[in-house]
Amino acid sequence: MWIYKIVLGPLLLAQGRTMRRTARRLAEAAGERTGVILAEGNQSELKLLFVGDSTMAGVGVQNQKAALAFQIAAILAKELGRSVRWQLIAKSGLNTSQAFEFVREQELLPADVIVTALGVNDVTSQRTSRQFVEDYEILIHELLRRTGAQFAVINGLPPLHLTPAAPQPLRWYLGRCAHLLDVHLRQWIAPQRNIAYVSLQWASNPKEMAADGFHPGESQYRQWADLVAETIINLMPKQTLENQAAR
Description:
Elements: H1 2-22, E1 34-37, E2 46-52, H2 68-80, E3 84-90, H3 96-104, E4 113-117, H4 120-124, H5 129-147, E5 151-155, H6 170-189, E6 195-198, H7 218-235, H8 238-246
Helix pairs in contact: 2-7, 3-5, 5-6
C-alpha cells in the first residue's frame, strides 16, 4: 500500500480534498440516545451499550428508531421476551483513538453487552493496522471495565471500494485500506471467546445507501440490526441468559 500511496499520492490527495469539500453532509439521526424497550414478564433487563462513529450515530436516517441501536434493542426485546435498556455513545468523525477519549468524558451506564462500529475514520485518517487494533483493544477493555459487561460485538469495516461518494482511484485505495484494517481486526477477535465480529461486506448495493453515497440507508440499517441482534444471542451462552433473566 505504501507503493500505491507514493505513486498515486498527488492524485489521491487532490481527490480527497475535493471529496471533503463537495460531499453531501447528513446530520446524525434525531431522537433519544438512551431508553428502555419493555417486554412482558418480570425478568431482569438486558443492558446494552453502543459506541461508535457516524454510522452508530444514525447518519443516513432521520430518527434513532430507524438507526442501529434502537432497532437492535427492539429485536432483542422481542426475541428474548425481556426488557432491554440501551445507551448510545456516538459521534461523527471519530476514529478509534478519538473514540476512547470521547468515551472517557461520558457517563456510562452498566451494561451486559458492548456493541461498537468504528474504523472508517481510521481509514480516512490513514492510521496503520497496528495502531487501529491496539487502540480498539484499549477501548474495548476500558468499556468492559467501566460497564461491567462480559461480552462485546465488534462490527467490521464496510466495503469502501464500492462507495459511490468517492471517485476512482481514491475509492479503490480506501477500499484496500479498509480491507487491511478489517483483516487485522478479525485476527485479533478470532481467539477471544467473549468478543464476536460482524462482517459488513454484505452491504454492497449502492442503491441502498443514504443520499450522501457513503452511509447506510434505512434498509441497510434494518438488515444490520438483524445481524447484530442474532450475533448477540449466539454470543451469550444460554446459561448466561438464564442467569441474567433470573436476577
